[in-house]
Amino acid sequence: SDLIAHIKEMFDNLKLEVLHGKQECYYVEQRLKTKSEEYESLYSEHDEEIRAVIQQKESVQSRLNDMEDKFEHLLLNQEQQILKFQSESLKAKEEKAILVETLQETEVEYMKTQRNLSDLEEQKSSLIELIQTLSVRAIHTLSEMI
Questions:
Q1: In this structure, what are the phi and psi dihedrals at residue 10, rounded to the nearest 5 degrees?
Q2: Residue 105: CA atoms inside 13 Å, Cβ hemisphere, count?
């Protein structure tokens, strides 16, 4: 989410640069139109200046194209990051569901084990009572034999 915010900030900055570039391009185009009109009447005096304006316009247009390419690349990269994040989030949710299911199964097994342990304790008590009863009878029987 910090990455997405950072990328969005970068996009906003690029948008401003693109807008500034477009404004600068428009300004240069307006200057070019003005110079072209003057050129018709003062061809020889303004020829170099018009060429400089044309070069400036081409330079600005080139920079604008570069910025648009960077913007498209960053947009594509952001979309890929969002898809990757969504995929990882979905995978984490699936893993959590598996862990919850495993925990529930473990709890069921624990309860069964506790019941079995309790049954064994009862059987142990019964066996101890039976052994005590048999011991008393054996002693009693031995006493009578003697």
A1: -60, -40
A2: 6
**Would you write out the chain's pLDDT as a tens digit for each of its 146 residues?**
788 888 888 888 888 888 898 999 889 999 989 888 877 776 666 667 778 889 999 999 999 999 999 999 999 999 999 999 999 999 999 999 999 999 999 999 999 999 999 999 999 999 999 999 999 999 999 888 87
Alpha-carbon distance of 133 to 137, in angstroms, equals 6
Distance CA 46, CA 41 (A): 9
Residue carrying structure tokens 């008590």: 125
Contact 60, 25 (CB under 8 A): yes
Q: What are phi and psi of 24, to 5 degrees?
A: -65, -40
- The pair of structure tokens assigned to 132 is 């005590």
Q: Tell me the backbone φ, ψ of residue 42, rounded to 5 degrees.
A: -125, 50
Using alpha carbons, select from 28, 3, 21 the residue that is nearest to residue 70. 21
- With vertex at residue 142, the alpha carbon angle to CA 138 and CA 144, rounded to the nearest 5 degrees, is 120
- Name the residue with tokens 């009693």: 140
Say whether pTM exceeds 0.70: no
